[in-house]
Amino acid sequence: MYVFESFVDNQGNLKAPLCCDARALLALYEAAHLGTPNEEFLTGAQKHTRNMLTSKVDNLEKPLADKVWHSLQTPSFRRMKRLEARLYIPLYEQDKEECNELVLELAKLDFYLLQRIHREEVKEICEWYHGLEFPRKLFYARHRPTEAYFWALGLYYEPQYAKARLLLAKFVATITPYDDTFDNYGVSEELQPFADVMKRWDMKEAEQFGECYSDFAKFMFGTMTEIENSLPEDIARRNVNIIRDIINKVCTGYVTEIGWRDSKYIPTLQEHLKTMIHV
Length: 279
Prior knowledge:
With 279 residues, the chain is mainly alpha-helical. The protein is 74% helix and 0% strand. α3 (22-32) packs antiparallel against α4, α7 crosses α10 (162-185) and α10 (162-185) packs antiparallel against α13 (211-230).
């Protein structure tokens, strides 16, 4: 924070030379988003630099204007890393004032090499998902293994975390039909008992429900077993128990939403956020 304080005068306003320098304002705007919620100075810096950049952007020349618009839409720190690389490389290449040709070439090579890895991983996830018996029986569900992988890539974007990406993608691909079972298929009289059984992770009881319920339960339990078997023995049980706790909280949230739906109740934003945060 003390570094940022060097940019303001005794009255707490941004110094005049900084206010006239769009590149410096852009750099400060991006850096201010790295602060923690309690750093009020950086929160103020975000607001002031955003207002100044917004007032200047229409008068800036390209490619600087494009870089400013890109940042004002969503700061780089808050973007998905690999997607941001794809979007930012052309902006960097066009900016002859800042572009380093060697860095640009390395960035392109890095992106395309990792893209090859990601394509192979997407192929593996899709072959895994569409090769399973039970998801095909869930006619009402969204089957989104590619999107599930993209979600996992947003979290584990470093190339060395391939295994984590694949396991998380399988988990997310399993959760999506879970949501659809509540939203698009079941009725409240069936969903509450089904949710109770799923929370107990009792496959035998789950088989007593209708075909789609039992098919999803087999899909879910089978995926969790696969994830557990893919982890080292010393951490497998602990990590899978954490995942199960998350799934149980997700299930509780789904049941709450079904109650709202059936009673035609429109929750407030705070009620909805509270339910989702607990999930």
